[in-house]
Amino acid sequence: MDSSAKPLKDATRLKVDASLAALAKVLNTLASHYLDSETAYEHTLPMHPDAEGLLYVIHDDVKAKEKRREKLQAGDFNVDEYPHGL
Prior knowledge:
Elements: H1 13-35, H2 51-73
């Protein structure tokens, strides 16, 4: 372990919330420019407000994308199942 490493500063909920809000603003600026849309990030995880809940949402998304990719590779091009593309 490097003895010159400095410990991280304390992270408060307020600082984390401010960081996430800033990131959401950047993402929405890009989405607005390139996709003519934005996302209400503050409302995306009301059922899963903690880190564990977020991991479940990410896991479910990864599994859903794998299933869609498998269907496409098998020749199933039902556009009703792919409203936003891949």
